[in-house]
């Protein structure tokens, strides 16, 4: 079996954070933090990085095991309860992402196609991705991760001539309350990077991989949010549903390629399906850890169909989905702050 | 409206047919989990799509948690 490389781990963490974050929260973060929206991401990133450090240290106390394995071995009952709680967390992320993607496709790409069909197509694709091993997911990450990074780095050069730097004023009067609100919104999304020590065992995964992953994610999010503000302004982007898509629509490579957004969406869409596949994979993996006789691979399709149904029950509309971001952070903080601290405090090998 | 439910039923039948041979050789718990998830999904789907008055989970949770949100 091939060894998991450092690059694959970094790209998986980056992919899992960036793809849905750049769709779901820019509008709300810009509304709250205005031109200092990038500070919200940095604030949230700092908290998450600390929690990632705690989880990584906990994971390293059990060499050769990931956190799911070590928790269930060390604490047969409480460990399984913690794994089940994390499965629930990733299930809610999966449900939210299925609904987000179905809504985005319905609003932007396929307005006539019924949302049920779109949602079912997304779910079916995700099942096939997740049914492969983690190697399949990592292989696709290696393909689409660098592409997303390159596209975002190239974007400022294409739209630079349209930037209005006056839109960043006032530059030094930071609205800290707004920044804190933006941080509150973004922590639940950036915190998804905590998936890394749950998938990879401590021989492969080190804290520096999570750190690189986080730094790349924060850099990409900062570039995107700054470009959105410089191009669309605070008031317009704060009122748009998908300001990042609107930003991409502004990309025109002279007369040669005036629908550059189609290329970007075509590359971003498989990457977001990969996001869903990672969520589904970890739920199936967790189920296999909790009940060893269950085949994680065979559970992928039923769990995905269950998530598809829940997508229509959890959220009334895409507006409600965005509005729920405020309360979702409260739930996510249990998994991003409380449980990592608990794991760090109690998860130690037995003294012999 | 019942046609909408057919989407779900068709998807569930396809899953059962495709996995039929593999799942037969696995422990019974796999079959029970599959049936449980598919039936549970169908109940939720029927409730949320075919019902006129639906209590959406995010709306309910939102109402419950809003006082605790600091902003």
UniProtKB/TrEMBL annotation, chain A:
<keyword id="KW-1133">Transmembrane helix</keyword>
<feature type="transmembrane region" description="Helical">
    <location>
        <begin position="262"/>
        <end position="287"/>
    </location>
</feature>
<keyword id="KW-0472">Membrane</keyword>
<feature type="transmembrane region" description="Helical">
    <location>
        <begin position="107"/>
        <end position="130"/>
    </location>
</feature>
<keyword id="KW-0812">Transmembrane</keyword>
<dbReference type="GO" id="GO:0016020">
    <property type="term" value="C:membrane"/>
</dbReference>
<feature type="transmembrane region" description="Helical">
    <location>
        <begin position="9"/>
        <end position="30"/>
    </location>
</feature>
<dbReference type="GO" id="GO:0009847">
    <property type="term" value="P:spore germination"/>
</dbReference>
<comment type="similarity">
    <text>Belongs to the amino acid-polyamine-organocation (APC) superfamily. Spore germination protein (SGP) (TC 2.A.3.9) family.</text>
</comment>
<keyword id="KW-0309">Germination</keyword>
<keyword id="KW-0813">Transport</keyword>
<feature type="transmembrane region" description="Helical">
    <location>
        <begin position="36"/>
        <end position="56"/>
    </location>
</feature>
<feature type="transmembrane region" description="Helical">
    <location>
        <begin position="299"/>
        <end position="316"/>
    </location>
</feature>
<dbReference type="InterPro" id="IPR004761">
    <property type="entry name" value="Spore_GerAB"/>
</dbReference>
<feature type="transmembrane region" description="Helical">
    <location>
        <begin position="137"/>
        <end position="159"/>
    </location>
</feature>
<feature type="transmembrane region" description="Helical">
    <location>
        <begin position="179"/>
        <end position="200"/>
    </location>
</feature>
<dbReference type="Pfam" id="PF03845">
    <property type="entry name" value="Spore_permease"/>
</dbReference>
<feature type="transmembrane region" description="Helical">
    <location>
        <begin position="328"/>
        <end position="346"/>
    </location>
</feature>
<feature type="transmembrane region" description="Helical">
    <location>
        <begin position="77"/>
        <end position="95"/>
    </location>
</feature>
<feature type="transmembrane region" description="Helical">
    <location>
        <begin position="212"/>
        <end position="242"/>
    </location>
</feature>
<protein>
    <submittedName>
        <fullName>Endospore germination permease</fullName>
    </submittedName>
</protein>
From TrEMBL, chain B:
<keyword id="KW-0812">Transmembrane</keyword>
<feature type="transmembrane region" description="Helical">
    <location>
        <begin position="30"/>
        <end position="50"/>
    </location>
</feature>
<protein>
    <submittedName>
        <fullName>Uncharacterized protein</fullName>
    </submittedName>
</protein>
<keyword id="KW-1133">Transmembrane helix</keyword>
<keyword id="KW-0472">Membrane</keyword>
């Amino acid at each position: 079996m091939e060894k998991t490389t450092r690059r694959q781990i970094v790209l998986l963490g980056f992919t899992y954070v960036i793809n849905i974050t750049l769709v779901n929260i820019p509008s709300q973060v810009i509304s709250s933090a205005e031109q200092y929206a990038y500070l919200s991401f940095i604030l949230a990133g700092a908290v998450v990085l600390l929690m990632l450090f705690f989880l990584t240290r906990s994971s390293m106390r059990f060499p050769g095991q990931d956190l799911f394995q070590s928790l269930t071995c060390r604490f047969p009952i409480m460990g399984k309860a913690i794994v089940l709680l994390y499965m629930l967390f990733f299930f809610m992320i999966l449900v939210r992402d299925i609904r987000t993607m179905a809504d985005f496709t319905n609003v932007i790409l396929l307005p006539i196609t019924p949302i049920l069909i779109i949602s079912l197509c997304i779910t079916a694709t995700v099942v096939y991705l997740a049914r492969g091993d983690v190697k399949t997911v990592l292989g696709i990450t290696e393909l689409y991760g660098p592409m997303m990074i390159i596209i975002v780095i190239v974007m400022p050069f294409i739209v630079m001539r349209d930037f209005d730097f006056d839109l960043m004023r006032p530059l030094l009067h930071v609205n800290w309350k707004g920044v804190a609100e933006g941080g509150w919104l973004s922590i639940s999304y950036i915190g998804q990077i905590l998936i890394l020590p749950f998938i990879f065992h401590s021989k492969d995964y080190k804290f520096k991989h999570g750190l690189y992953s986080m730094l790349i994610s924060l850099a990409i999010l900062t570039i995107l949010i700054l470009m959105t503000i410089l191009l669309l302004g605070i008031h317009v982007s704060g009122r748009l549903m998908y300001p990042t898509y609107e930003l991409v629509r502004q990309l025109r490579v002279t007369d040669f390629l005036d629908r550059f957004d189609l290329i970007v969406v075509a590359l971003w869409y498989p990457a977001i399906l990969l996001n869903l596949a990672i969520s589904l994979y970890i739920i199936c993996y967790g189920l296999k850890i909790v009940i060893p006789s269950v085949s994680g691979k065979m559970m992928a399709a039923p769990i995905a169909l269950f998530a598809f149904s829940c997508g229509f029950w959890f959220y009334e509309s895409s507006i409600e989905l965005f509005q729920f971001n405020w309360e979702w952070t409260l739930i996510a903080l249990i998994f991003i702050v409380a449980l990592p601290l608990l794991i760090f405090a109690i998860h130690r090998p037995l003294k012999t | 409206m019942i046609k909408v439910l057919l989407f779900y039923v068709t998807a569930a039948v396809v899953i059962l047919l495709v996995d039929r041979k593999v799942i037969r050789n696995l422990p019974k718990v796999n079959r029970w989990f599959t049936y449980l998830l598919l039936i549970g999904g169908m109940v939720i789907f029927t409730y949320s799509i075919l019902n006129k008055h639906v209590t959406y989970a995010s709306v309910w949770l939102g109402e419950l948690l809003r006082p605790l949100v600091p902003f």
